[in-house]
Amino acid sequence: MSELATKSKRATASADMLLNATSALMAERNSVDVTFADIAARSGMNSALIHYHFGNKAGLYKALLERDAGSTFAALDRLVAADMPAREKLRHHIAGVIKTYHRYPYMNRLIGALSIDSESETARFIAERFTRPLAEAQAAILRQGVEEGVFRKVDPMLFHFSLVGACDHLFHARHSLKFAFGVEEIDDDLQRRYADHIAGIVLDSIAA
Fold first, then answer.
1. Are 87 and 79 in contact (CB under 8 A)?
2. DSSP per position, 115-167
């Protein structure tokens, strides 16, 4: 391996370690409020490397969001194009969204932190890279369901915000799970039961 390739591999590895540390801290704290010092301590790396790889906190957050969510859109495109009834597509989509939030419970708060200034270029990037493709896929499934006669017509924009909010809330409100219901951890079984529950509510609410 050439010296240049070795350096590139090391740089990629160090960037991944920083992203992994950031992800772990956000998941543990149920918050996106982590400092460069926190990340450096968790990763065992110098905080200057965060500036080197990502420039600033927004750059770090964008890279983390791309790593966590960017790869899911190819699967979503395949789902929309699949030869499958709309009800099943929507059920699979809801399960996929909740599974993603289970793995990365900070995702919506990360999007919110990046979009806090709604007029910024970062907010535009988030909307165009993540929100729009998700909403367009959902709208396509809804149209298919209307054409099949199984869904009534609903506003796809309102549907998008309702669905994302419902899917995310279990993971956002972990304090309520712990102190109101005595649930210490969201395990795979609870994740699946929640996905089935939300799918049932959504499918019933838009049934023709």
1. no
2. TSSTTSHHHHHHIIIIIHHHHHHHHHHHHHHHHHTSB----HHHHHHHHHHHH
Among 30, 27, 124, 115, smallest CA distance to 68 is for 27
Each residue of 49-103: pLDDT tens digit? 999 999 998 899 999 999 998 888 999 999 999 999 999 999 999 999 999 999 9
- The one-letter code for the residue type at 144 is Q
| CA distance to 43, 49, 51, 68, 120, per residue, from 65 (Å) | 18, 19, 17, 5, 17
CB 140 within 8 A of CB 77: no
Return the structure tokens found at 151.
């869904």
> What is the number of other CB atoms lying within 10 angstroms of the CB of residue 38?
16
In angstroms, the CA 115 to CA 133 distance is 17
